[in-house]
Design goal:
- The chain is built from ten helices and no strands.
- It is mainly α and about 240 residues long.
- Helix 1 crosses helix 5.
- Helices cover about 75% and strands about 0% of the residues.
Length: about 240
């Protein structure tokens, strides 16, 4: 739990890193004699550990998860193999995630890092305050069924309000909910392209073209259909709107 909160604190501190010439002081690592009780090498080791966990946090507790699942299903449905490449899909998912999470990250910064920098709250209080916007975002998309599952697994008391939910319960519940939603959207995307595959396969078999794989014939038709309906605009637009409902 402390590791998760520490990661949130690092996320909230990112804007301050760009405004100072000493990143160590911004992150609370003191190199002077009057520094914290934890030694500087230990602080650096903890910091590097938290930085290593940041990619997992970005992939798991942000819209990045749903977007990448949907884009993967879309590429599979089109049958284009490696086009667009993984780098392109991940880059698109990352920038869409930044657009969606920018207000949440700004609230985390204002509620957590700014009071800590001004000396108004302790580090623990700042991390708790920074976690509130994230908790609000996760509660919006986590299903009640998944939350109940992890409340039972963690043997935690039943929450009376969303604010009573611990992040160790809310984060895995959000991940399961996003996986379910991503697979549902992916299944819907598959259907029109599956119909094209079935039609092409039936036609090629009926005329005796058994030597030519139906996938080679259906691929141009699927790509043409996707281009004609402006598929990228529809898919990305629908994904973005699903996070603002």
């Amino acid at each position: 739990m402390r590791i998760i909160r520490g990661s949130l604190g690092l996320l909230a501190a990112v804007p301050a890193l760009a405004a100072t010439g000493d990143p160590l002081s911004v992150l609370g690592i003191s190199t002077g004699k009057g520094g914290a009780s934890v030694s500087v090498p230990m602080q650096i080791a903890i910091l590097m550990t938290l930085m290593a966990l940041l990619p997992a946090a970005v992939m798991s507790i942000t819209p990045f998860l749903r977007i990448t699942v949907v884009l993967h299903f879309l590429r599979q449905a089109l049958g284009t193999q490696t086009t667009p490449s993984n780098q392109v899909l991940l880059g698109l998912a990352l920038f869409l995630t930044i657009v969606i999470m920018q207000p949440v990250a700004a609230d985390m910064y204002h509620q957590g890092w700014e009071p800590l920098e001004a000396g108004q709250v302790t580090t623990q209080q700042a991390m708790d305050q920074a976690a509130r916007p994230l908790r609000t975002f996760l509660v919006r998309f986590a299903r009640d069924k998944d939350i109940r599952l992890f409340v039972e697994i963690a043997h935690a008391p039943a929450p009376h309000t969303p604010d009573d939910l611990d992040l160790k319960v809310l984060i895995p519940a959000y991940i399961l909910s996003e996986l379910k939603t991503g697979f549902q959207i992916g299944a819907v995307l598959f259907l029109p392209f599956l119909v094209i595959d079935l039609v092409v396969a039936s036609v090629t078999l009926s005329v005796g073209m058994v030597q030519l794989p139906p996938v080679m014939i259906s691929a141009p038709f699927k790509i043409l259909l996707f281009v004609l309906v402006d598929g990228w605009n529809l898919v990305v637009g629908s994904l973005m709107r699903s996070f603002y409902q």
